[in-house]
Sequence to fold (277 residues):
Amino acid sequence: MKVCRMDDGIAVERDGGWFRVEGVTLDALFRDEAPASWMSGGARVEAPTQWLAPIESQEVWAAGVTYFRSREARMEESEKEADVYDRVYQAERPELFFKATPHRVVGEGESVVIREDSEWNVPEAELALAVNRAGNIFGYTIGNDMSSRSIEGENPLYLPQAKIYDGSCALGPALYLSDEPLPPETAVELEVVRASEVVFSGRTSLSELKRSGEELVRYLFRHNSFPNGCYLLTGTGIVPPAEFTLAHKDVVTITIEPIGTLTNTVGPSGTGPRRAL
Ligand code: DO4
Ligand code: MG
Fold:
């Protein structure tokens, strides 16, 4: 079942149609406090045309170097410190980092941002886990962990600046509810279109992900509480070649079925979420 956050409430897709539901918020779902009946009621509505990012009060965290391809690309980009990426790929403890507060997150159709002080910028197509406050994964969405490779490549200690800025994270289009892990053959696909031409496309599958969602969440919740739950991006397995950088007006699409497709245009600083913050 999919949950869509709209300007004026929440709609769910079930039984082949969309229903607007009252008396539930995303925060209530992430706190595991939604009334048991919330999924069954509601008035039938047209399929939503405006999808807000499926986030209310959640922090967004991310895992890194969870795919071999990410380890390889980061070792190339950071010649002097290549070893740290190899070590974290092999280590028992994963790389986990803070990614965004809700106001830095954009949704379907909004602009993701590239920093003006960065000359090498990439999208990172990632499965995002929806984790409730008890640490249980109850759903999934698509995440774009926008990254400055020039800033990260200069020094790994610059990671927060490479990763966290206004418009640096996209989530959506909807929250797909499921207590079951997505099957390993699930494909993650990324495409970047510039002036109607595909300038990059790539594909991976969850079978390439080295760590399970449960393992990543277990580490995240060690000595850390999330009163309103959180999202955890699981890392990228698609890295464009070194000569590729994003440009303003590029259109980035990421598809993970059964969640759907997340589409964002690349904009300069100052573009970002259109919802009230
Ligand atoms: O180690 C830096 C970030 C890695 C990352 O974001 C990824 O692998 O997806
Ligand atoms: Mg990433």
Notes: The pocket of 2,5-dioxopentanoic acid (ligand 1) is lined by residues 62, 64-65, 70, 74, 95, 124, 145, 159, 235-236 (CB under 6 Å). The radius of gyration is 18 Å.
